[in-house]
What we know:
32% of the residues lie in helices and 21% in strands. The chain has 984 residues and is α/β, with parallel strands linked by helices. A hairpin with a 2-residue loop joins strand 3 and strand 4 (91-101).
Amino acid sequence: MQPTPEQSPHHAYPDHWEADVVLRDGGTARIRPITTDDAERLVSFYEQVSDESKYYRFFAPYPRLSAKDVHRFTHHDYVDRVGLAVTVGGEFIATVRYDRIDATGRPASAPADEAEVAFLVQDAHQGRGVASALLEHIAAVARERGIRRFAAEVLPANNKMIKVFRDAGYTQQRSFEDGSVHLTLDLEPTAESLAVQRAREQRAEARSVQRLIAPGSVAVIGTGRNPGGVGRTVLRNLLAAGFTGRTYAVNSAFAADQDTIDGVPAHRSIGGISEPVDLAVVAVPADRVPEAVTDCGEHGVQGLVVLSAGYAEWGAEGRERQRELVRQARSYGMRIIGPNAFGVINNSDAVRLNASLAPESPAPGRIGLFTQSGAIGIALLSGLYRRGAGLSTFISAGNRADISGNDFLQYWYEDPDTDVALLYLESIGNPRKFTRLARRTAATKPVVVVKGARHSGSTPPGHAVPVSRIPDATVSALMRQAGVIRVDTVTEMVDAGLLLADQPLPAGPRIAILGNSESLGLLTYDACLAEGLRPRPPRDLTTAATPQDFRDALAEALADSNCDAVVVTAIPWVGENGEAESGEGEVLAAALRTAAATGPAKPVAVVHVEIGGLAEALAAATSTAAVPPVARASAPAAPDASAAPAPRTAPPTAQAAPPAARTGPSVSTTPGDSPTQQRSDTDPGDTPAVPVLGRIPAYPAAERAVRALAEAVKYAQWRRQAAVPGKVPEFLDDTIDEAGAAARIDALLGSDPDPRGRSLGHDEACELLGRYGITVRPTLPAPDPDAAVAAAARLGYPVALKTTAPHLRHRADLGGVRLDLANEAALRRAYGELTDLLGKPTELQPVVQSMAPRGVDTVVRATIDPAAGAVLSFGLAGAPSELLGDTAHRLVPATDRDAAELIRSIRAAPVLFGWRGSAPVDSAALEELLLRVSRLVDDHPEVVSVALEPVVVATQGLSVLGASVRLAPSLARTDLGPRRLPNY
């Protein structure tokens, strides 16, 4: 919506202020600037506001707006006077306005930095978080226009509005004057305001997902009149799953007298249904979808699953059709899964929703699965089904034009029915947000990700997202920093998901191996070493071992305090006639599950070779009940040889529980029953704990089992470390001139900066780095031998002579560097050799630099990626990082723990810590340098690239010998601004 010329004599309509937001109840609304065209909407909105709300707004009875009021409230200059409106279905549901004022409270212009703010929310929409969202957006607008404080007058009885201001997290002052509460809010974001904003975002987005996967009623739009077809298939699956809500079939082609189809009420439109519809599954051709969306929006449908194809996957025209679909749905407050989606499944007993095309509905379980591909979704469902795994929820989002993996991470974070989140992603629309949400979710439950389209260099069809320039290896490192378990294939994702869902986390990397095949045990041992685990020598039970032998050996291994996990290997028993004995799989499974249930809580995995019925029997848990909350509340503690491991519950016998039985809550194990919380078995009068014979994951190859176990070990270690997060050391604040650096950056960029940015000269880069305590060893130009000698005299011998031509920089292997030149003669001789070998001085651009203390050459870099954000990188200079890719990465801002891990996570790290008897380098100085670089790029997003190469780290201190810095106008940080839905 564009304003008339009189609307904005000084500033054009700020369309970047427009935003779609998710409200507290999960519905959506649009926030936009008010224009002169909104006069009728404003009057209509005001007529629907109660007299009480009007009184709270104007401090007096104010039944209607005058023509002068309407003009004032719809005419803004978007600088000193700004009004925003919240709309649903094109109509106003709330407004906010600020007017810049001076110290006396009179209207003013810049440089006055205070504004009076006032809100008005329609009574029917109060309690939905509308005012809180408006406050975030109007505060961001005010900061953009140079306003630093809001002043508000609120009647004492207006508790709702006072609470909005109080709970926002901004620094504020409150006083009581002339019968009203005077509030002053500093608009500079604080840690508390950001935490409040993100908590509200999580609740709202989780609720928006819940509305889609736990509806009370579902309508299938496009249900065919004949069997078959997409709509009819979805309806059939809904009925087969036993959906607990109401189901409707909708097709405009139904005959007027047709009342039912497949026993379900049939209607020609959503409007013909007399009861509310929560979810609509849209299965009509793309050209008929807008009509269906309008029908849904005008009759209160809360969300859509759009199965229809013909959108962004079909090119530019389809992409525009997809954007219009999202705009249309959001205008009615609805969110979308799809288009081109495969559907959704929710196995909760209270819902039992299968609104998908999946031919087999998965069993209930503890795994949540999100995929952007229908084909991959089918494969994953099939694989999980074959291995006896159950799902809590399944979502195949197709083009994921609206609802994405980020939304489901918000939902799964607090979902009591989901213990593990599996995601197949082909693109990440908001990587900064994904990393933040994944880190938070991974702190409570595992997040396993497969990233498709890793090396294609292009966005998958239908996904309009920022394209990252960083290598896939860097993406993987950043995911691991956030606690995400990144695997390469969907098979590995299922393998890891099964282990994490059914087994406790390991306390360390010490692995016991036992079985009836020496060869299979050795393969498992080798696989453990290859994955960085610490296996114990395999225990061979021999081919004569019975299921009881397996049970005893597993119980012994689990009880060993020097063991953190167990891998059981098994081959078939061979009878006297040379044939494999039948039925032994079920017997062995029972023995292993009993041993696991009676022993300490440690993960167990089984590697088997064609033992009939074993995998199925291991997967058929006695109970599908959830693990008690206390068992999953935190990661396991580090192994302690002096403490006995926590035992599991007692075996299924009539005898009393043994002394080692685990105390605390247990769950009912009656098949089909819901989990029932039992009293602690230490309470007086308690009966012995009932055992939980859970699933044990089985694998057809040792490598697959060990790889899944290795991922669990690394994740458990991350959980333990994440429990005590790192921090940016405060001592850095005393040595950093943030304001001076900002002023210098502004001066270097100029008033009209080139959007492509500019590289700083050597002296400019050194000056900027110096403001963050980063000293670059001085160099002096040497255009001829005499200048080189003069430079050396200034710097002091010994010196180094280097070429700085771009094609020779950092290429000591080409002979462009001469070191330890102790006197003038050596310097002149080296200068002559250099020019004779490589070319004229004008081509080589030689410089002289004082020698640094001997040490290890490293490289420190920081770059701003448009998709991933700021990334800090470290490696050894030269071949290790450039040829072998041995570089570690962390997201900015980096903490002290990140810096310590960064230098220790490269493969060549031993070189820094006394390899082959060499003296360890000053790791503390190196970590401090990393933190200073991190602070620089985090404080100043205009710094888009920093490269320090080489950084020579000695036994005491370090020397930065070369530096380059690039500046560019900063882009808006959407992850720090007010909440808004992405527009792809």
